[in-house]
Specification:
This protein has three domains: about 90 residues, Roll (Pdz3 Domain), CATH 2.30.42; about 220 residues, 2-enoyl-CoA Hydratase, Chain A, domain 1 (Alpha-Beta Complex), CATH 3.90.226; about 100 residues, no CATH class. The chain is about 35% helix and about 20% strand. The chain has 18 helices and 22 strands. Strands 1, 2, 14, 15, 18 and 19 form a six-stranded mixed β-sheet that branches. Strands 4, 5, 6, 7, 8 and 9 form a six-stranded antiparallel β-sheet that branches. α8 packs parallel to α9, α13 crosses α16 and α16 packs antiparallel against α17. It is globular and about 65 Å long.
Amino acid sequence: MKIDNKYLPILISVALAIGIVLGGVLNTPNQNHFFTKNSSKNKLNELIDFIDNEYVDDVNTDSIVNLTVDNILAKLDPHSVYVPPSEQTEVVESMRGDFVGIGVNFYMYKDSVAIIKPVENGPSAKAGIKAGDRILYADKTKLFGRKLPNDSLFSKLKGTVGSEIELTIYRKSERKKIKLTVKRDVIPLKSVDVSMLLKNNTGYIKINRFAETTYGEFKKGLATLKKQGAQSLIIDLRDNGGGYMEEAIAIADELLKDSQLIVFTKNKKGNVDKTFATERGSFESGNVFVLINENSASASEILAGAIQDNDRGTIVGRRSFGKGLVQREMDFDDGSAVRLTIARYYTPTGRSIQKPYSKGNEAYFKESNTRFENGELFEKDSIKVSDSLKFKTKKGKIVYGGGGIVPDVFVPLEVEHGNESTAYLMQSGIVGHFVFEELDKNRNVFKGLSFQQFMTKMNGTDLYFNSFQKYIFQNGLDLKFGKSKSLVKRYLAAEFARQVYGGKYYYEIVLKEDAMIKAVFKN
């Protein structure tokens, strides 16, 4: 089956949209105070009892309740959602910033659990597991030759701190089976992908979400960059769907002067809660640039809005998603949860950046895709703003509400000779799978090479470019790379570097030709 190229960006953005749905949460204690007695609620409970006790056929009333909850929340807003028990554990771990496990990055390759890379200094790495290993058995449970869903695999590999699991490994490079005992431990889920120094004493920090550990990770990275001489700072929030707004506020506090307004919220009773910067900021002077795109949402928009409205820095990129609603998570006894919108947030100038959702959830989320179709991702003049939602910063800069943060410096979607689908594809998971499979053919191909020698080798060959083109055709995508060769080769080299040398080297490669980074250094 071949997929029409014009729909490829939409397909690739689905996972990002899911992250945005669950982004933007107040990290406050659970408050289940909204279940009070009244006749309508009693009627619903009685109906479930009638079905459970009297209906002619056996019915799973739990599924009816879940469906009812989903339907009720769908009538409210796109971000009030029900999270079933099967998903809630993973969501909680992601937002907490760690989990207990063996510490490997893996995926199902053909019929086996293939290790892309063990987590550095994690339990698996300490036990001797290597990239390319296949896990055949977890204790006595067979993992190969079966179509196990990811949640089943995770449950086999996770456990309690200090508990042991015996893994039977097949090491392809040595053509032998090995039994290893791995002691489970806490595995961090980093929300800051990298912090590194670029040219002109400019620090760069990439934040992928706002979890409980994000501010701590950011502050540690910023401190290191300052010691290295960073005088300007780039904060990359592209494709960051949000998370805990307190973490975004804490980061804003590091950049803003004492008493500057960061954000304020307003609930249904009209109560306003304002949050101001304190005197603790460690980077209150020096240039700040915030990178955003159409998938930057919620907490990302709080941070970007605070910087823009206080005239503290420059927002670079494309209009953000447009989520200005605040949720509170409330847990149920069965392990599920509901994330209920309890307030709207406003940037310091008083603007709401929440885009309209009166036409329903489907139209709401499709709005992001229409930006691709109407040309907004390529031309700043295609961004639709309303003069009635115009605001001014203290220095007189015009900013707009009503649907995302409009950047100060517009940078179109990275396109080479009109092939925008390639730009989306090269940042998707399929590239990582291809690189793993290429490395799997010969793990020694880059052995002993310095990073500079690796780059010379990658720049001097079209071997992987040609192989990737064939791989894409074989996977049903009718996408030709001839006019985007340099872009494809750059991202392939970056992914090889990530899997061979580590994540920092991925960014060293892609950022050199990154359109938004180039825009920063022009300003």
